[in-house]
C-alpha cells in the first residue's frame, strides 16, 4: 500500500488477470489471460473509476461554463473575419476534457514515482524548440513545434513538469532553517531553474514569470523559514531596481541617438547586460511612462487604449453578444482580441455583470482548489493542489489586470477562455490533478 509519509508510490501489480468463461456444461472455468492482454490490463489498472470519495462537482461545472463562454466570445471577436478559431477551441476543449477525465482517474501518487520521465520529456521539447530549423519562429520568438496538424508550445507542459519536480522534491525534503534546507533548495533551484532558463531563451517571458509564484507558494506551505522569503523579497526588489535602471538607460540611449522606440527596436540590446528585448522594454514604458512613447506608434499602447475603451463602454449589462464595436470594427486588433484581450470583448458585450460572472466562476475554481489542498491527507497532494491553484490565480489576475492597465502587457492568456490549443490542454491536465487529489484523498491505510 502507499507510504503515507512520503505521499506513497503506486505500483500496479503484475499478476495475470483471470478470465471467467462458461463451460458447455459444469462449473465456470478460469483461464489466465494471454501475456499481452494481461500487460494491457495491467496498464489500464491505473485508471480507477471507483474510490472512497465521489467526484467534486464544483470545479468541473465552473470549467465547463468558462469553456462555453470562451467559445462564444472567440466566435464574437472573429465574427467579421473568415477565421474559425472558435471551432478549433471546441476541439481543444473536447480533447482537454478527455485529458481531465483520464488524469482524474489516476491516483495522483503515481506521479511521485514517474515524474522524472515527464520532466525529461519536457526538457527535450524545450531544447528541440530552440534548434534552428526545428522550432517554428513567429513574431521574433521561437516557441512552437509544428507537427502539421498541431503546433505544440513546449512551455505549457513545462509548467506541469516544474509543478511535479517542485512537489516531489518538497515532499521528500526535511525543511527547517535555511541552513538545514540548503541542500533541498539547491536541488529545487536547479531542477526548476533549467526549464525556466530554456523558456526565457525562446524568448517567452510570459510563461516564465508565472512559475516563480507557483514555486514560492509551494515552499510557503512546506513551512520553510520566513528568513528565506524575506531574502527572496529582497532579491525581487533588487531585480525590479535593475530593470528600472536598465529602462532609464534605454530611454536616454534612444533619445540621445535620435532613435525611434518602435522602428529601431533591437539597437539597445547590445549595449545592456540585462537580458531583456527592446520590445519588452517598450511594454514596460507603455505601462510606466506612456507619455514617452506615442500611443499611436506602439502596438501595446494601442492595444491597451482600445482595451480600456472596450471595458469602459460596456456599462452594466453590455452592448450584447456579437454587438461590440471595438473587436467587430478592428480597433481591438484581431491578432489579440480572441486570446490575450478576450476579457475586453466580454466586458464590452456583457458589461459589468458579465465580467463579474466570469470572475465568480474563477473564484469557484480557485477557492475550491484551496479547499481541496486543505482536505489532502499527504504533503504531495497538498503541494499539487496549492501549486495548480496559485498558477491559475496568477494567470487570471495578470490577464485581467493587463486589460485594464494595472500591470504591463505580458500576453498571459486567460484559462479556458483565451484561444490556444497547448494552453487549454495543459490547463485541463492541471485541473485533473486537483480532482485526483480530491478523489483519492481517503485512499490511505
Summarize the structure.
This protein is mostly helical and 445 residues long.
Q: How many strands, what sense, and barrel or not for the largest sheet? A: 3 strands, antiparallel
- Strand arrangement in the largest pleated sheet: 3-4-5
Tally of strands: 5
What's the N-to-C terminus distance?
7 Å
Question: What does it look like?
Answer:
It is a single chain. The protein has about 450 residues and is mostly helical. The chain has one domain (about 60-440). About 60% of the residues lie in helices and about 5% in strands. It contains 15 helices and 5 strands. It has helices at about 35-45, 60-75, 85-105, 110-130, 155-170, 180-200, 205-210, 210-220, 225-255, 280-290, 300-315, 335, 340-375, 380-405, 420-440, and strands spanning about 20, 30, 135-140, 140-145, 150. The strands form 2 sheets. Strands 3-4-5 form a 3-stranded antiparallel beta sheet, with no helix packed on it. The radius of gyration is 24 Å and the shape is globular. The N and C termini lie close together (about 5 Å). Residues about 1-15 and about 20-25 have low confidence and may be disordered.
Features:
single chain, 445 residues, mainly alpha, 15 helices, disordered N terminus
